[in-house]
Amino acid sequence: MAYRETEKMRQRKAAARQRIAECTYQCVTEGGFRTAKITRVAQLAGVATGTIYRHYESKEDLFAEIFRLATQREVDKVAEALAAPGNATVRLEKALRQFAERALKGPVMAWSLIAEPVDPKVEEERLAYRKAYANLFEQAIREGIEEGCIPDQDARLSSTCLVGAIAESLVGPLSPSQAGQETADETDNNDPLVNTIIRFCIQGLTGTRR
Amino acid sequence: MAYRETEKMRQRKAAARQRIAECTYQCVTEGGFRTAKITRVAQLAGVATGTIYRHYESKEDLFAEIFRLATQREVDKVAEALAAPGNATVRLEKALRQFAERALKGPVMAWSLIAEPVDPKVEEERLAYRKAYANLFEQAIREGIEEGCIPDQDARLSSTCLVGAIAESLVGPLSPSQAGQETADETDNNDPLVNTIIRFCIQGLTGTRR
């Protein structure tokens, strides 16, 4: 029977959807997408599993939304760092360093965002978000070339080299098989790791020994 | 009813399995994993779709095998280039250049291997093979550090920066949305593209302007 959705019903629906998203997010933060089973999310959210499918068409859609939420947060942080004062090289270095440090501080979520094998929908999001990061870096590289602190180069292509280098170099350190051995919380000494990655990236861009 | 498999039956079975693998490989080369539907593979191989599942547990297993076959070929090529004469920087540059050029010459397969969203089994293989590439690069970087042509650094970490930079920078140029615009066969001028990627990689390693 068709009926008009009241404002109150809309609000309640939106709140339920948000609660499901938050509980899924929490699961992924704790153990990656592989531990975010629908039954577990439903339990955490205090709803029936069927309710979840009233808000999300599929588990894949739910995961894709969580991926977007969490990744957009990181993209925003990179944009913020790149908008700070300083020449382009300094800003790029800060943005890359912050990205790596944030990942190492939240290694489970970071690994899930960067490398966890999930499903094709999440992989599609990964490709899209890597482009988003690259767009930000590209803009900064262009500014650096204009400022003269970065040699002339194909800014688009170099930006993707940056995205690849920083993401792939973090996969090993973040991977669950290494977790427990040396995570940020335990040793609190990720400086050499981060320094090596940043040096590679900035040298790659500038050709100047760091 | 249990029976003993004769040598002839074993051979026939192996031949059928290989034929299925070859036809799947051909599909992926032509249009990526997304076009390698089981019905199409069966048609090409001249078998019933059910036969495919007698040789492979699932489509995912079949795809993972094709991924391994095709990627191992590229890993071997990198190993070969790294084993050639010359100092480590020269060998790394050759290996990276050859990798990029081979990818751009077979863009559909290369994109499928590097970036096509497939399924978690293929993603697992991707992670494993990226490690295989990194292991090869790591060894060459160590040799370069000993030879003195590469500054002292965390060879393991730098090797993953190389893997990430070269793979990610090829995603855009290889992606189907760009295909037809400028693929290797049409313009035959991928030199500036490859040069930019190689420059970034070698500068990243050596900190010396190219």
Protein described:
The structure is a homodimer of 210-residue chains. Chain A is mostly helical and 210 residues long. The first copy, chain A, contains 10 helices and no strands. The first copy, chain A, has helices spanning 7-31, 38-45, 49-55, 59-82, 88-105, 107-114, 120-147, 155-174, 184-187, 191-206. Chain A is elongated, with a radius of gyration of 20 Å.
Query: Helices and strands of chain A, in N-to-C order?
Result: HHHHHHHHHH
**Straight-line distance between termini of chain A:** 69 Å
Kindly state the percentage of residues in helix of chain A: over 70%
Helical stretch tally of chain A:
10
Could you say which structural class the secondary elements and strand pairing of chain A correspond to?
mainly alpha
Biggest sheet statistics of chain A: none
Radius of gyration of chain A: 20 Å
CATH class of the largest domain in chain A: Mainly Alpha
Number of domains of chain A: 2
> What are the segments of chain A in which pLDDT stays under 50 over at least 5 consecutive residues?
none
Which two protein chains have the largest interface (Cβ within 8 Å of the partner's Cβ), and how many residues from each?
A-B, 45 and 45 residues
Average predicted local confidence, pLDDT of chain A: 93
Q: What proportion strand of chain A?
A: under 5%
CATH superfamily of the largest domain in chain A: Tetracycline Repressor, domain 2
Oligomer: homodimer
CATH fold naming of the largest domain in chain A: Tetracycline Repressor, domain 2
In total, how many beta strands of chain A?
0
Keywords (chains A, B): DNA-binding
Pfam family, one (chains A, B): TetR_C_24
GO molecular function (chains A, B): DNA-binding transcription factor activity; transcription cis-regulatory region binding
Protein name (chains A, B): Transcriptional regulator, TetR family
